[in-house]
Amino acid sequence: MTIHCWIGSVAEMSGRPASRSCRDLVDRAEALALAEPNEPLHIAALCCALAVSERTLRKAFHKIYGLPPYRHLRFLRLSQARGALLAADGQVVTVTEIATGFGFVELGRFSVEYRKMFGESPSKTLQRSSSPKLCNQVTPRPGLFMGGDI
Amino acid sequence: MKLSFGRHRQRYLWLLTAVIATYVVVSYLILPATWSRIEHEPGLAKRTMVTSTAQGIPGGPINVGLIGAREDVVAAFHAAGWYPADPITLRTSLEIIGSVLLDRSYKDAPVSPLYFDGRREDLAFEKPEGISADRRQHVRLWLVLQSGADNSPVWLGSASFDSGVTLSRDTGQVTHKIAPNIDEERDRLITGLDLARMVLDIYQMRGIGPTLNGRNGEGEPYYTDGEIWMAKLVAQGEKASKPAKILPAPALIQMKDKMFSWASFVG
């Protein structure tokens, strides 16, 4: 369980105990945000579905990860998109299809954010995953970046 | 009298022979054996571990290394609370100036480009200290081996701590000044990743060697024991169950590092 393995890591670093209720709330937020990856990520809608205020959600994420919810959930989606790009066949799917499949409707912004985080463009990742001679260099593995076991 | 002179000569000859023999044994057998270490990444042995600016001015030394896929590196820094740096654009340049001047938060401010292995950094991360972008931990990373000794990608990086803003000694441009004790920053980075349980093994590799009066690309002074700390990362942020295993360096190198650390503390 990849993501859950992170829970408490930042809290441990700063010596703060991660309370059960915060952990539960963060778990539920992650599950909701990733349940329908093709839907754009809106924190207000997420709070509505969880029946908590934005302040409560923010405090819970800060307690567990030391990060704002949007930044963490966005990271998870970008990571999932990378997993999909690495696993995809560039002859069959496009970057646009994968990006929109993970709720990134502004493709320019997706590309900039992806490049900033992973240091390469999404099209380069897709191209590399499709190249037979380089396939052995980066092998997509199940877990966080495949989005299967959150 | 003659007998005594001959005896003395013989004694001096023995002494000289003993000194030469001791020197040969110590310098050519014992010390090299003690200093030698297992180089875990033989593919990196011949590189000069210094970055450079776009103008070719020597920059900061390489002082950290990571073993893992690109996504493992990104996940590890995310878990440790680091931010990927923005690219340098007009907007981000104005934003970092505003952050420093007005003490505004800018957690993913851009970092200036440095070159290693003939190209700009592949990844850059930072962790702000305080509100604005003038004080921050930051590291630039280069993918140097697609497949290292254990078939995982190998990254080398240059980590330092921005401690404020100053004018470059070489170009006069506004730039960050760095904390001169870059070993402290290297240790903080690796420890931070380990505390987040993102590291499996830690070991040392030969870097630029002990340097007391180094200058980075902006003319800022630094000193270092010259070692690179390498960290083998967990796969895809899957948290390790225990702190990383530290593979010890040879005794003489440990002694040298301790002496250097003590000397730099006293100095």
End-to-end span of chain B in angstroms?
56 Å
Q: Considering residues with a beta carbon less than 8 A from a beta carbon on another chain, report the largest interface and each chain's count.
A: A-B, 27 and 29 residues
* Order of helix and strand elements from N to C terminus of chain B: HEEEHEHEEEEEEHEEEEEH
Q: Helix fraction of chain A?
A: 55-70%
For the biggest sheet of chain B, the summary is:
9 strands, mixed
Q: Nearest-angstrom radius of gyration of chain A?
A: 16 Å
Q: Radius of gyration of chain B from the CA trace?
A: 23 Å
Helix tally of chain A equals 9
Quantity of strands of chain A, as a count? 0
Question: Averaging pLDDT over every residue of chain A, what do you get?
Answer: 78
Distance between the ends of chain A: 7 Å
Structural description of this entry:
The complex is a heterodimer of chains A (about 150) and B (about 270). In chain A, helix 3 crosses helix 4 (about 45-50) and helix 6 packs parallel to helix 9. Chain A starts with a helix and ends in a 20-residue tail after the last helix. Chain A is mainly α. Chain A has helices at about 1-5, 10-15, 20-35, 45-50, 55-65, 70-85, 95-100, 105-120, 120-130. The radius of gyration of chain A is 16 Å and the shape is elongated. Residues about 1-15 and about 135-150 of chain A have low confidence and may be disordered. Chain B is of the alpha+beta class and about 270 residues long. Helix content of chain B is about 35%, strand content about 30%. Chain B is built from five helices and 15 strands. In chain B, a hairpin with an 8-residue loop joins strand 8 and strand 9 (about 155-165). Chain B is globular and about 90 Å long. The model of chain B has no long low-confidence stretch (mean pLDDT about 85). Chains A and B meet through helix 1, helix 2, helix 6 and helix 8 of A and helix 2 of B.
